[in-house]
Design goal:
- This protein is mainly beta.
- It has one domain: Porin.
- The protein is elongated and about 60 Å long.
- An eight-stranded antiparallel β-barrel has the order 1-2-3-4-5-6-7-8.
- The longest helix has 12 residues, at about 5-15.
- It is built from two helices and eight strands.
């Protein structure tokens, strides 16, 4: 089954094959998918799984601030009436700050810091939650793309024809990115605390204001 988010990311990549310089300031939305590896004491209950994340942010020149919500779904998916037989799904949300560096053409790299919270509402760890801090880095390609191509990704193939994208209606600033990050959490529940180290890799796209 195809994932709409992945199709949109592919559309972004095609549309940015020969991008024009883009002004990056403004409000944007991003969606990303990938994997998570769990270590430390939480790693005794789950090795990690599928990562999905949504964010709403604002960028001013090179600095961005994002409010985000994410899920780390256990690789051992499925419901069991016995809590001990379930791997926990991890709900996270937080605030990120990012600083971007241009590296030529439409490409940028960025560094980010994160403040977040993790909560668990299934498995033996139901009721556990706690705050975390993290760091990350990523690379992205950005430019202008027609909104039509994002709503219906196959239209992006037209963008391979020189100047064709200009005729496809309103455009927005878009990017496709690859992100890697590390977060440390201390979770409290049932009268004790457990630590979690989480490493994540995600691929995603962002769309923002067209200035």
């Amino acid at each position: 089954m195809r994932c709409p988010g992945m199709l949109a990311a592919a559309a972004v990549l095609v549309c940015l094959a020969a991008p024009l310089p883009a002004h990056a300031d403004g409000i944007y939305f991003s969606e990303s998918f990938g994997g998570a590896q769990i270590e430390d004491e939480l790693g005794q209950y789950t090795d990690g799984g599928f990562r999905i994340r949504w964010a709403l942010g604002y960028r001013a020149k090179r600095v961005s601030v994002e409010a985000w919500f994410g899920l780390d779904l256990a690789a051992e998916a499925g419901y069991s009436a016995i809590p001990e037989d379930q791997d926990p799904d991890l709900l996270t949300y937080g605030l990120d700050g990012k600083y971007a560096f241009a590296i030529g053409g439409p490409f940028e790299v960025y560094l980010r810091g994160s403040m977040s919270r993790m909560e668990i509402d299934n498995s033996l760890l139901t009721g556990y939650g706690g705050r975390g801090l993290g760091v990350g880095t990523g690379i992205q390609v950005k430019g202008k793309a027609p909104l039509l191509a994002l709503l219906y990704p196959p239209v992006a193939l037209v963008c391979l024809i020189p100047d064709a994208c200009r005729k496809l209606g309103p455009r927005a600033t878009v990017s496709a990115f690859l992100d890697q990050g590390y977060d440390f959490y201390r979770l409290h529940g049932a009268g004790q605390a457990i630590d979690a180290q989480v490493t994540r890799w995600t691929l995603g796209f962002a769309i923002g204001s067209d200035f």
